[in-house]
Amino acid sequence: DGVTEVLAHRSDNLQDKFMEIPCSEDYDNHKRFAGCTPRRCGRGVTDAVITREEAERIRRIAERGLALGGSDGGASILDLHSGALSLGKHFVNLYRYFGEKIHDIFTEEDFALYRDVRQRIQQRIAQVFGISPSAMYLTKPTFFSRMNSTGAKTTHDEYWHPHVDKVTYGSFDYTSLLYLSDYSEDFGGGRFVFMDADSNKTVEPRAGRVSFFTSGSENLHRVEKVQWGTRFAITISFTCDPQHGIEDPLLA
After folding, report:
1. Residues 194, 219 contacting (CB under 8 angstroms)
2. 161 belongs to a structural domain
3. Which residues contact 116 (CB under 8 A, 6 or more apart)?
4. ω before 141 within 30° of 0 (cis)?
């Protein structure tokens, strides 16, 4: 793996840490949107947007939803927007599968907190990259993840491969992760790794920590395999293309 530097230790309490990186050419292969498509690229970490207490409340939403299903392998997802929930080796639609019972699992307050957290992350990304929050749209997939050390059963469980979000999803322009558990306390392994030509730069998850970055090849990344315990996070993705925008989830 070469040289590894820690960009953010779990014990750090970071107001704002930002590294600017030259933009890749990935954005040239897609329609550009003035005032949004990245012209300044980089990656940031902040512990000042979401409190630990809010992260714990959000984690409980994830735990309740994922308790209804869960992958046979080590990585489970819950997408409140589309309703996708890992179940065994497949996915089900949470809303269709559980119908009216969904109101016994989630509350309006849960969804209001989720929206509020999403908006604050969007505002911080916009502020750091010098764009208007209204020029960015939430896009899919935006989802909770729960990872443990169980071996992979399908390719969906193999979360540790290096990838570029813009190449994988096309619509992504800005990616963020909100961590809901603590590295070395709740789980081992599972650090987030930016893979640069000269070194790897890792982010150690901490409940309430937000890591965000432009989605092109300038931010090739992977997640280490979780060795023990359980790692919870939310991936929240943004696009500049209104055609790829999705709405906040509603408790129908």
Report:
1. yes
2. yes
3. none
4. yes
Q: How far apart are CA 152 and CA 71, in angstroms?
A: 9
Give the integer Cα–Cα distance in Å for 154 and 241: 31
- CA 34 to chain centroid, in Å, comes to 25
Residues 193, 221: contact at Cβ < 8 Å? Answer: yes
Provide the CATH number for the domain around residue 94.
2.60.120.620
- 11: Cβ contacts below 8 Å, ≥ 6 apart: none
pLDDT digits (tens, 9 = 90+) for 13-51: 999 999 999 999 999 999 999 999 999 999 999 999 999
Would you name the residues annotated as active-site residues?
Answer: 231
* Exposure on the CB side of residue 100, measured as CA atoms within 13 A: 0
What range defines the domain where residue 24 resides? 4-243
What is the model's pTM?
0.96
Residue 215, CB half-sphere, CA atoms under 13 Å: how many? 26
Per the domain annotation, does 251 fall within a domain?
Answer: no
Q: Which of 58, 96, 100, 92 is nearest to 76 (CA)?
A: 92
